[in-house]
Every structure is written in structure tokens, then in C-alpha cells.
């Protein structure tokens, strides 16, 4: 979950030529039938003029991020003569629905979570990417598995233009290295050994906080998602987040149990269960930079550096160490997964060649240089030039992501809102408090799953 929550064959070549905006017959190897939109046979369109060298884009990010986004488009605009009008709105999720229902959708929308994109794709308002992008080339340069987050009924309807990663463990560099502990544990067993060594010194190994106001509990969902990926692999993970297997499946219960063993190990987590629930997620790692440290390790997304003390932020490369949250030592899956998220660009005007040209640039590894240099942005492409990032911390984070065997989007962002931002959060609190067992919590969450959303992608081959 993010800190700001809500929530066959491609088109035939003959149709592509008739539509005039397709450069060849670009095939999605996983597509399952013709039609420009889900269940439809025509190219999606809006009320805006086509081919006028103006492309409207709508997204959720504003302020300095919007400025960096526009700067990253400037060279493209100068080369192509296309003017890109970016309109941000913090209420993007609701506004894009309203604008679309009234025929006022932009040429391109940038979705912070897949749910809204897939909702509009299912209604026929989003063009599948295999009709205008080289799917195979895009899939080659992206982190493996990224496109799965935008798949509906076998076709993909959006592509990422930036990435966030979560499977990172952070530590106070000087104090941790002075302790002589492993800075690159190869698997979860080695990581558990590191934690046991730290705990034996009298200082808790892990920093952890799940308090987040009305969103309290969401950091716990990330832990379960991480463990589901590592214990059972991406295929089971996909089945779980789409409810093709029930939420109270024994494998999900096992992930809860594994997290419980970690939390309840003596002196392993600062404050224990009660401390976790009363500690704000943004404050969780602050004790690590005290003298002496009050804990050492935190597993959290790349955004966590923004919550560190100002003096630490001013010198991240010297103050902060990191390693990738490692894979399982043995079992169903031993590959290295990466959990994360990203902003997904979607074409809502398939008849506009200018909008298609912008989409090709936005979703390529050529986009984002100025934004990367400004900080706070990661490319979802393993082929992006990492020398453009402003510091070693960011470069290392990007390299961890690029080296992963598979990428999977944050599970609670993929689930129906009533679950991913509702019963799942609540269940993590009840489980942590000990008022309900893992079996009870997972059964409650399963019972809360909207019937119409369950297993909607069944049989899509993903």
C-alpha cells in the first residue's frame, strides 16, 4: 500500500492500418481477442481534437513532482512539436471517473494504483497497449512482472512511468558496520541470524511501526505481501490478490504465522506488539540513529528516507546502509522478488497519433532523466541509465530492483478497496493485538471480499 491511498491475438493488421494510428501489427503474446477496449471492437476516443499537436495528461502528483515531470518532457516537446498539458489533481481517483462519465477524459491518464485503471478499462475507456506499443520490447526492458498489474481479461491496459520499491532493509550505517553484522544476507534464514545476533546484544533488531491514523495497519499488509511472495512465489501471490485462492487459504495463514514468529522472538522487535501498534510508521526508524541505537533494521519502501532525521537526510550515502529484503532459503520459491508500486500511464484517446507518440515516450527507458536527477523518482526500466540518479542510495535501490527475478505490485492496492484499504488493515490490527487468530482474521477478510470482484481474471493465463 502507498502512504496516500485511494485505492489470443491483438488487433489485426488490417484494423491497425484502417485506424491510421498504429505503426505495424504489434502483438501482445498474452492477448485473448480483438477489440480496442475490454469487450469492445473499436478504438477508444474522447471529445478532444485529434492530431492538433496538443496532448492532455491528468495525474495525481503535483508540486515539485509536477515540475520535474514537465521538465522531463521539455526536450521531447521541442523535438516533436507536441505540447503536453499536464493537469494534476489530488482527488484524481474520483475526478477521473467523473470526467470519463461525462465525456471529458484526458488523452492520457496516469493512475497511482491499478484498480482505477482496470475499472475504466473494463468499461471500455482505455486502449490496450498492444495496439500501439511494442509489447515485447517494453516487457524486455521493464522489471519482470510489472505489466501484470495492468492486466484485465488477458490484455494489458497501462504501462508504468515511474516505480516505487518496498523490499528494502535499511540500517544506520556506522553503528551497524561497527557491529560487524552481515550487510548482504542471502536469504531469510541468514537475515534471521543477523537479527538474533543483534538481539543478543540487548538491543532489539527490528524497528517497526504500524500506526498511521485512519490507515493504521497498512504497514502490516506489506509484511504479509512480502512473505507471500517469498514463501509461495509470484503465481500463488497473483492467485491470492485476485481471490482465485481464498484469503484464508492455509498458505496465507502460514505467512501470518511466520510474521508472528519474527515479531514474538525475544527482543527481536522494538516495543513488541504493543510498541508496533503505537509507533507511527514514519517514526519507526528514528531510534536507529540515536546514540546508541534503539534498534537497527527496518523493512520499508524507498520513500522512508524522507522520514529520517534532517542531518541524516543531508548525508544519506554516509549515514544509511541498505540491502534487499532477501528470498526464502528453501521451499516453493527461492527467486528474488521485489514488491513495489508505480504510476501507470493509460491511453484514453486511441485515435490521436500525438497521444500515442507521448505514450511511447512516457513508457520508455528514455523518459525521466531530469526527474531522476532531481531525486524522488525511479525508472521501472532495468535499462535506465542509473548514473542519472543523484546519490548512491538511489542508484543502489534501482539496481536492487533491476536485479530482482520478478516484480509484483503491492497486493492491497490490487485488491478491492473494501479489502485492501479496509478489512485487511483492520485484520492486521486485530491479529497484532491478539484479539483474533490468523485463521479468524483471514476468514473475516475472505468474507468481506466483494463477490463481483472475486477471481474476475480467472482463466486469463497470467
UniProtKB/TrEMBL annotation:
Report the sequence similarity comment from the record.
Belongs to the bacterial solute-binding protein 1 family.
Protein name, as recorded: Alpha-glucoside transport system substrate-binding protein
Q: What PANTHER family does its record include? A: ARABINOSE-BINDING PROTEIN-RELATED (PTHR43649), OSMOPROTECTIVE COMPOUNDS-BINDING PROTEIN GGTB (PTHR43649:SF29)
Q: Where is the signal peptide?
A: 1-23
Coiled-coil intervals in this record?
none
SUPFAM superfamilies annotated for this entry?
Periplasmic binding protein-like II
Question: Could you tell me which InterPro entries the record lists for this protein?
Answer: Bact_solute-bd_prot1 (IPR050490), SBP (IPR006059)
Highest taxon, organism lineage: Bacteria
Q: Which UniProt keywords apply?
A: Signal, Transport
